[in-house]
Amino acid sequence: MHSFLQDLKFAIRMALGAERSDVARSVVGHSLMLAAAGVCAGVAVAAAGARQLASLMYGVPQYDLTAFVGAPIVLLCVAVAASYLPARRATRIEPSSALRYE
Description:
Blueprint: H1 2-15, H2 20-56, H3 65-91, H4 95-100
């Protein structure tokens, strides 16, 4: 049901004149904002606990550049890909057929 309501929302926006690219950009942008907030919170928690974890493990640096930069970049790329594919599918729906659905 949730997918139908999202598709209906996109169909209404497109029926009112929004371009397909604008709708897709809106979906990806919203998803990227949520992912960025989660990544920022995760990096903050990781930085706060880094000293404690480094004292428990031998040979592991306290602040590993790969972990603190590479992992967030990978997660943000995955979030963009995970939101772009459904957004593209939703924008390919004809507004008239989505609005006629009973």
